[in-house]
Structure formats: C-alpha cells, structure tokens
Amino acid sequence: MASIKPLGDRVVVEPKNESEEKIGSIIVPDTAKEKPQEGKVIAAGQGRYEDGKLVPLEVKVGDTVLYGKYSGTEIKQGGKDLLIIRESDILGVVTN
Fold first, then answer.
1. What dihedral angle (degrees, nearest 10) is formed by the CA atoms of 27, 71, 66, 80?
2. What is the pTM of this model?
3. Which CATH architecture has domain 1-16+35-96?
4. Cα–Cα nearest to 67, from 81, 88, 82, 47
5. Cα separation of 1 and 69, whole Å?
6. In angstroms, rounded to a whole number, what is the distance separating the alpha carbons of residues 19 and 61?
7. pLDDT-derived band at 48, boundaries 50, 70, 90
8. Beta partners for 67?
9. Quick one: average pLDDT of 46-56?
10. Which compartment or compartments is the protein found in?
C-alpha cells in the first residue's frame, strides 16, 4: 500500500471513529450523522516558507487535533477515510 506524504503546511488526519448511534430501536444512518471534528495526525509536511525561511509545523505525527467542520479534502487510503488539511485549519491540539 502506498503512503501519503503531504506537501508544505498540510497534514493528513485520520478522523476519530464515531460509534454507531441508536435512538431507541432506530439506527441513525451515516448520512444523518455530523462529521467528526477531532482526529489523529498520521503524516505531516515539512512546513511553510515565510520570507524565504522554512517555518516548521506546530503539530506532529501522533497529535490529536481539532479542526473545522468543513476543512480539508476527504480521501480514501487503504480502506480508511482520511482528511488532508492545512495547518491553519487546525483549531487546536488536544492534550491530556
């Protein structure tokens, strides 16, 4: 399986899995569920250039991040749903 190496200030995020939701005995279909806004960074680019200097990303592989509801580009890789987003679309890093 090929891996994805994001360019520039982009990161690849694996959205947090939503468990199957039931209301009473009714199963809520995937199309009616809200998209998760939390995920794990699985790949990161080298950073962005400002004034000719490389500025490294603030997030790193393994970080759990929060991002905007409509951020990024959805892709499928190896049967997984992934999201490629810019670092500027990341709202914060979840810490324990």
1. 60
2. 0.79
3. Roll (2.30)
4. 88
5. 29
6. 24
7. very high
8. 90
9. 93
10. Cytoplasm
- Tens of pLDDT, residue by residue over 25-45, are 676 666 655 666 899 999 999
Contact 27, 51 (CB under 8 A): no
Tokens, residue 31: 């199309």
3-state secondary structure the chain: CCCCCCCCCEEEEEECCCCCCEECCEECCHHHCCCCCEEEEEEECCCEEECCEEECCCCCCCCEEEECCCCCEEEEECCEEEEEEEHHHEEEEECC
Burial of 86 from C-beta contacts in 10 A (0-12 / 13-18 / 19+) = middle
> What does the domain layout of the chain look like in residue ranges?
1-16+35-96
